[in-house]
Amino acid sequence: VLLDPMAGVGTLPIEAALHFGVKAIGCDVDPRAISLARKNLEAAQPYLSSASSLLRRDGDDGRNIIHQSKNEIDQSENVDVSELVSFHEWDVCEMPLDDASVDAVVVDMPFGLTCDLDRRMYPRAFEEIGRVTRRGGRVVILGMSKGVVMRSVKEGGEGGTGSAWEIRELVDPVNVGGLNAFVMVLEKR
After folding, report:
1. pTM for this one?
2. Phi first, then psi: what are they for 76, rounded to 5°?
3. H helices within the chain, ranges in order?
4. Mean of the per-residue pLDDT values for the chain?
5. Residues linked to residue 24 through DSSP beta bridges, in sequence order
6. What is the C-alpha to C-alpha distance for residues 55 and 84, in angstroms, rounded to an integer?
7. Angle, alpha carbons 110-9-149 (nearest 5°)
8. 93-116 pLDDT tens trace
9. For residue 92, pLDDT beyond 90
10. How far apart (Å, rounded) are the C-alpha atoms in residues 24 and 41?
11. pLDDT, average across residues 7-36
């Protein structure tokens, strides 16, 4: 299971299902974003159905990239995208998911001049992401405020000890539409 806890209009979960056949959950606190994500999900159905035959059938369907989902996905010629992707109006700091129920997390952190995100929520968000991510699970972050995220990763995690995460890779800078951002890959200890 792949989770995008700040899914916005749902691009990452839909693309994960489309290209890798994984079960994906997207959530966002903004009901307008979730409404648009569901519309995007509906619009993606024809593309997923036709692309499902392109997934490799030799046992390596791409899920190993995100540490092989424990859920087996039916890869028939007519995959229903709604069976692979779901969107929910949830707060990243309080998600109704079981502990260690997620294999991988992708987060395109809100950033840019139009974003007025309360950065004090980052440690709580990473603590919650740590709670739902299984040991050995990966988290891939695209963000702009590297210092805030680094502190949050150290503070967030099990009990706020920061011991939950190991930074596996950091790519900085990454140009995103003229803005300097970074990509960080974490592994849950």
Report:
1. 0.81
2. -70, 170
3. 11-20, 31-51, 81-84, 122-132, 146-155
4. 80
5. 2, 85
6. 14
7. 20
8. 999 999 999 999 999 987 655 555
9. yes
10. 11
11. 94
What does the chain come to in residues? 189
> Strand, coil or helix: what is 88?
strand
Which residue in 22, 126, 7, 108 sits closest to 65, CA to CA? 22
Joined tokens for residue 143: 């963000």
Higher pLDDT residue, 188 or 60? 188
Provide CB contacts within 8 A for 111, sequence distance 6+. 117, 143, 144, 145, 179, 181
Residues 73-89 pLDDT 10s: 444 445 566 789 999 99
Residue type, 20: F
Backbone conformation region of residue 159, classed left if phi is above 0, alpha if psi is from -120 to 50, else beta: left
Q: Which amino acid is at 187?
A: E
DSSP code at position 39: H
User: Which residues contact residue 27 at a Cβ distance below 8 angstroms, ignoring those fewer than 6 apart?
Assistant: 3, 4, 5, 6, 7, 34, 87, 88, 89, 90, 92, 95
**In this structure, is the dihedral angle defined by the CA atoms of residues 121, 13, 182 and 162, taken in order, positive or negative?**
positive
